[in-house]
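Extended Data, panel c. Modelled sequence:
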Amino acid sequence: MRTVPTAKPLAAGDGRQGEAACDPVTVTLTPAVAGLKPARYSDSHMTGDLDRVDRAVLNAFQGGFPVTERPFGPAAEALRERGIDVTESEMVERVRAMDEAGTLTRFGALIDAEAIGGTATLVAMHAPEERFDEVAETVNGFPEVAHNYAREHPHLNMWFVVSVADESRVEEVLAEIEAETGQETYNLPKQREFRVEAKFPVDGPLSEDGIDLTDLGTEVTPTDREGLTPDELDLVVEIQDGLPISETPYADVAEAIGAETEWVVETIKRFNEEGKVRRVGAVPNHYALGYSENGMTVWDVPDDVVEEVGRDVAAFDFVTHCYERPRHEGVWPYNVFAMTHGRDEAESQRRIEQVRDRMADHWDVGDDDWDTLFSTEILKKTGIRIEERAEANVVDAETPDT
């Protein structure tokens, strides 16, 4: 292994940016945006057109949206009980308008691809400056590569997610990438998950607390069955990029796949309880909401306090992802990753310092014990290939629970 220096923590005011694409298992379907840099937006620029009701809807339902035949009715009623004057039809129109304007990436079920089947992993590599574009093109040419970002680091300057249906395929893909690029890869699979909760409140009503209506509707019984039945696969493929934004979204889904509305409602609700769906609601475009300052903080945490550190750092609401990942001796000394978000440089820096202070409650954190990696360019972002992964793990409907 080559020994390389590690980067020092960034000083306040550097103005470098990152993104929230380090969660390798939550499905995020977005168009390919290779070559784009993470946009810098002020909160007023992107949220200035959102009125008080829009902000309340966003804050209330980034999760906890009801899974019932007419979900916008009880959702609007819950808002009215909290002083937000909105009807069912008005709420539908507002959500549709935010979706069309790009304030949302979608509205619907956030599917946990890992629970559906297959696996994904975060990978780092070095791309020589004089060959950077060539290496990026080669890496991006692999269909298994979902996200790829250029990041500021003196050595590991390219970070991508590999998503496959069969876990054994990961090492094969990395060997192929190394053979074609001539560059070593460093696999950083998730070892422990402490938090995946990418919610982005905006200034306005209900900014401190969302509304949870997941208990409404039919009672369901979770199963321990792994994989999906063929009918469940059809449902996941239909809803993976969002629900229809109408007064009857689940009925619309049912019609699209030739199923009964009752079955669609019950299955999504069961998936929510089983963890195949992380949550149902608005999935914001965090850049559009002004969260332009996002940093992947990485920490060399002593092994004997990782559990406590991960739990405590995950308690911050501005930390959207927190994982334990492996070190690579001589190249990568960090084992805890925490993604932070802020709406300006000062807020981002304050939050990173808060994480460091929380870390310091558990051990003596030195300057060489941590770093913040900000992304400089989106090289590829096509989303996790959920259909292929799910198809490889389809089970018979009669398969007993394990």
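The mean pLDDT is 84. This feature is highlighted in the accompanying rendering.
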